[in-house]
Amino acid sequence: MLAARCLRRLKMAVRLECRSASAVAALPAAGAARFHDFDAAVTECIERRELRAGRQVHARMVAAGYRPALYLATRLVIMYARCGALGDARNVLDGMPERNVVSWTAMISGYSQNERPAEAMELFVTMLRAGCDPNEFTLASVLTSCTGSQGIHQIKQVHAFAVKTNFELHMFVGSALLDIYAKSENIKEAQRVFDMLPARDVVSCTAIISGYTQLGLDEEALNLFRQLYNEGMQCNQVTFTTLLNALSGLASLDYGKQVHGLILRKELPFFMALQNSLIDMYSKCGKLLYSRRVFDNMPERSVVSWNAILMGYGRHGLAHEVSQLFASMREEVKPDSVTLLAVLSGYSHGGMVDEGLDIFDLLVKEQSTLLNIEHYGCVIDLLGRSGRLKKALNLIQKMPFEPTRAIWGSLLGACRVHANVHVGELVSQKLLEIEPENAGSYVILSNIYAAAGMWKDVFRVRKLMLKKTVIKEPGRSWMILDKVIHTFHSNERFHPRKEDIDAKIKEIYVAIKAAGFVPDLSCVLHDVDDEQKERMLLGHSEKLAITFGLMSTPSGLTIRVMKNLRICVDCHNFAKFVSKVYGREISLRDKNRFHLITEGACTCGDYW
Fold first, then answer.
1. 0.85 cut: is pTM over it?
2. How far apart are CA 94 and CA 312, in angstroms?
3. First to last CA, the chain
4. What is the pLDDT of residues 550-596, one digit of tens each?
5. How far apart are CA 267 and CA 15, in angstroms?
6. DSSP of 399-462, one letter per residue?
7. CB 475 within 8 A of CB 489
8. What angle is formed at CA 173 by the lines to CA 172 and CA 174, rounded to 5 degrees?
């Protein structure tokens, strides 16, 4: 045991415990030996994070009457902080007759790394008042503690201090600044700091790319990576993990394959987070086969790895595969809260209603502490899918969480599918209380009324929208062709091939109407005639993207489209008929799930 090893190295000090303090003082050679023994023992405890052994070493010092000098006392602070014993570390610091910048920084860093930002900031102020000047490591540690409601204000104060003390352009401080600015959603300031750095290392480059990714600016993150890589940026596992997260958001399969190839060529050592990101990226790009290949080839897997592959299968509605994987997982690792969410979500997307409800009932009895509002949301979706709307409403009223907009929205969508006006009105009222400016609630309620032929109520909802000045989030769809991201907005006017797309979509419209397609005019809330409604529906972004894909890709290739919102009923029907008439497979990833459409049928079973 390490403790025994440490104590053996302290044999001389142990013997000295039996002597008087004056006798010890009279032995300078023995004192020097004690210092080196104590220093070696504390260092080993730091390296191995052995708190128990570290406390025993410290106890030997006290028992031997040995008062550690500044250096060794600082090492004790570091040891306790590294082991998470912050109270012990602070006691040592407060008992030091003399402290230097390393002592203060060790304690501040301990607070920061153990998510105690208030204490870190308070100690930093105390340090300044004590007349000790911070160094670059102090400022970098303090910056990571600038969180909460006062976070941005604290960041700017520390930033100003760094400018005054000429630390702003130091590598450690600069990287910490741009990282914390990015995490506080101030990406412009993060970019400004990055641009000012006289030298950039892999940490600072990774931090700025991560900043864009965390804000959902995936295209910007990809473009920045390409620029920096062409300038000679060195990449490590964290850089690639960050980049893959951006490619997951874009669903950029071609770039994802290139990055995977680059990772293999660099022969990087195994890094589990990187493999997990590859699993997630491939599944979000619609390539579950590749995800499974990465998963199966991992020499070791964590619960995160299992969650990533479960989420991938669930996102595609492959509930049976989710069930089989879940059974295999329990033989290898212990499921966590995310696992249970992935399984319930997979059952929901795959239509395994009874199985999903059975496993939820079991979880409530045996693992209720792992359940949160998202798990209940999946069960609400399961009940809605099966048409048990009143039971879903009862569960919402009885569950131990306050229902969210997503919960009510899921039930409202089920009311549209099952044409349940009564429950739909109750649910929409709740939604409008929570989010009166959300256009989606008005649209679905209007669809419910239209399906029931309640046109007066349809017009009432439209007037209410005008009165509330509801603004709908703009729909946006995109696809990647020859490494170029083609983005389409509703009624796109600026795409370079706009005229060709307009001509092609009219041709498609004629062909699919001849095959039986009937536009769902209830998806348009504007008070215009039916002909105008059809023209408006044709301008939806996913229809334009599908049309462009049909024009620009060979017949054997899957048309891959991404959408920032939930796909509307009319566009879903449009995609199914295009698939059937033109013999094309269409992969459409919307806000909620994947829709893989082949020969006029969708994997979602027309429920999403």
1. no
2. 52
3. 57
4. 999 998 889 999 998 888 888 999 999 999 999 999 999 888 788 88
5. 52
6. SSS---HHHHHHHHHHHHHTT-HHHHHHHHHHHHHH-TT-HHHHHHHHHHHHHTT-HHHHHHHH
7. yes
8. 95
